[in-house]
Amino acid sequence: MAKQLQAIRGMNDILPEQTAVWSWLESHVRHTLAQYGYREMRVPIVEFTSLFARGIGENTDVVEKEMYTFVDRGGDSLTLRPEATACCVRAGIEHGLFHNQQQRLWTSGPMFRYERPQKGRYRQFHQVSVETFGMDGPDIDAELILLTWSLWKKLGLDEHVTLELNSLGDLECRQRYRDALIAYLEQHIDALDEDSKRRMYANPLRVLDSKDQGTQAVLVDAPKLHDYLDGESQAHFETLCTILDDAGVKYIVNQRLVRGLDYYNRTVFEWTTTALGSQGTVCGGGRYDGLVEQLGGKPTKACGFAMGMERLVLLLETCSLVPKELSTTVDVALVTFGDVGTYGMMLSERLRVACPDLRLQVCCGGGSVKSQMKRADKSGARIALMVGEDEKREGKVSVKYLREDKPQEVLTFEQLIATIVEER
Ligand code: ATP
Ligand code: MG
Fold first, then answer.
1. Which domains does the chain have, with CATH numbers?
2. pLDDT tens per residue across span 195-220
3. pTM, entire model
4. Is the Cβ–Cβ distance between 115 and 104 less than 8 Å?
5. Dihedral sign from CA coordinates of 134, 138, 142, 143
6. pLDDT at 260
7. Which residues line ligand 1 (CB under 6 A)?
């Protein structure tokens, strides 16, 4: 027997039982984005490697060790996108979307990172990525957060997530802070974990979110980013906080929140949960005012976020927030017996036209009435329609209620439609 093929580690099949939850989540996401006037954009899954190297930053985890990069037949180095912001910026520059315009955009789909697979962390995962261009905030920063907040409320997640907020200031103050942080870390170098020692010079801000306890202890007395903030960034952050306060959105200012990608400045935020172990960030983003220019466009203010769909699905399941009715996909099942030819099939077709929202499944493949009724029951349908030779002769259909204590009825097609409309 041939060796059984398997999916690649960390790349998941999403099976029919789960797609109902995904679709439900996605429809809430789409609806919320539409409420705020965001437009969908679709970008390729593969880009030139240089886009991510330049956009995300050479010294980030993603570019250093997580990218799926390959040389194609033409000799170009290509990369499966590890995130979509750089792709949106590339597309926006290429199609002139940023020229004297404001944009509110979103895109979604699979992202690829070569990480160690575990619960909530996969090699192919899905993000909804929301990006705004041409607005310098802080109102748009607040809008993005309010949008996510309104989504959490609709999903029932608002009790289960916490907003963490920080400001990274402008480039200049970040440089001054970097220098101060490096000087401090140098004094405590022996107490740092290996990763932090390695990162200390290339990307010292990343040391701030090291999970190592020794490093954490060193960081307690480290210089604080907010002591280095420039006046404008300070004011920007305060106004953002005021808007959130007025909207009743609670948050924690976390001065160690720096996020993994290099392009952020000023506002950064994360929505985190304690319900998913160490994969606790379900959504994260911030301002990236320098990225468009860095990728060859005209200077364009920008702010956005991405949410991890697998983690949101896991969280919804963990908190038992998935509506039960999602699991039923059929309202009515049709069972045929005896020599009825195409009568059952044609009746079903007419019924679907007459009741477009009805979910009607025909018990195809025949079999005894008993086995068909079993299948009808398993489908989750509330009603079984039964057609045999008598029904065919009289142009009628028998209706059996599978979940209620109601007598069986024999109805004409018109009566059937009326009954179905009434039942739903
Ligand atoms: P983490 O710190 O968990 O590695 P990150 O900072 O690398 O996250 P981002 O690049 O900001 O994550 O991506 C935004 C969101 O996408 C994350 O908050 C998370 O919900 C999700 N995400 C990121 N990497 C993965 C992954 N490998 N598997 C599943 N979801 C992921
Ligand atoms: Mg990561």
1. 16-170+230-318 (3.30.930.10), 332-423 (3.40.50.800)
2. 898 888 888 888 888 888 999 999 99
3. 0.91
4. no
5. negative
6. 65
7. 83, 113, 115, 120-122, 125, 127, 259-260, 279, 281-284, 306, 308, 310-311
